[in-house]
Specification:
Blueprint: H1 2-24, H2 50-54, H3 58-91, H4 96-138, E1 156-158, H5 161-170, E2 176-178, H6 179-188, H7 206-219, H8 223-238
Parallel strand pairs: 1-2
């Protein structure tokens, strides 16, 4: 945006110098625009009248529209006159007065073009400056940038160290990691809190952990767990081991 704004301001300065020079020589009657784009003096500072005061009035918009219509009519008329005179000038049949009139019409044509370009540049400068102000206001303060996390590498997630050894042997190119190791790594990275990690004593397998949880539920008088345990005991009393295995399998 800054380079585009710099190029626009440089082009506007060249157009304005050309118009000022034509005005000094009395070539054409036109209103010389300001030397700088609108809002250059107080760029970056809010206007005292607020956004309502910055909006153009209806009268100014109507006068600007009428000026555009007049310039368009003059432009078409100049183009027609230049097209009819170009043949005589290029063939050498035109006299001195016709040649002088031809070049004056050329200058007037470029005066209209310069006025249109300056008006277009002023509109684009306003848009670019408003975009730059919006970006500065939405940018986070210095030093509070979001921490960039390293991308995760593929790995095999296992329940315990025994499974890690088994799966690691089949895929030597991929590292293996248990659930506890994964939680610990994510906790160090700040992704999960320490409370979310499962609390497990070292050396305890999944079966022992399930038994501990089952005993803890029974100790807390969990009615559903107690009823399920009683039903299982009753079924084992009435169904000896191997019940229903009529083919002597196993």
């Amino acid at each position: 945006l800054s380079r585009r704004l710099e190029h626009l301001e440089g082009a506007r300065a060249h157009f304005w110098r050309f118009l000022k020079l034509c005005r000094s020589y009395g070539l054409g009657s036109f209103h010389l625009p300001p030397a700088g784009p609108p809002g250059e003096e107080d760029a970056g500072s809010p206007s005292p009248g607020g956004p309502t005061a910055a909006q153009p009035s209806l009268v100014a918009m109507a006068s600007s529209r009428q000026a555009k219509i007049e310039r368009y009519k003059q432009k078409k008329e100049l183009e027609n006159r230049l097209a009819s005179m170009r043949t005589f000038v290029e063939s050498g049949q035109a006299d001195e007065d016709q040649i002088r009139e031809f070049y004056i019409l050329q200058i007037q044509k470029w005066i209209n073009t310069s006025l249109e370009e300056i008006e277009s540049i002023d509109q684009e400068v306003v848009i670019l400056r408003s975009r730059g102000t919006a970006k500065q206001s939405s940018a986070p303060p210095h030093g509070t940038s979001r921490q960039v996390r390293a991308p995760l590498k593929p790995f095999i997630l296992t329940r315990d160290a025994a499974q890690a050894k088994v799966f690691g042997a089949g895929y030597p190119g991929l590292p293996t990691m248990t659930v506890d190791d994964w939680y610990e790594q994510r906790r160090r990275q700040g992704v999960v809190s320490g409370q979310s990690a499962p609390q497990r004593a070292p050396g305890i397998t999944d079966e022992e952990l399930q038994k501990q949880q089952q005993e803890k539920k029974e100790e807390e008088d969990d009615e559903e767990a107690l009823q399920k345990a009683r039903n299982w005991d009753d079924w084992k009393d009435t169904h000896p081991r191997g019940y229903g295995n009529r083919q002597n399998v196993g």
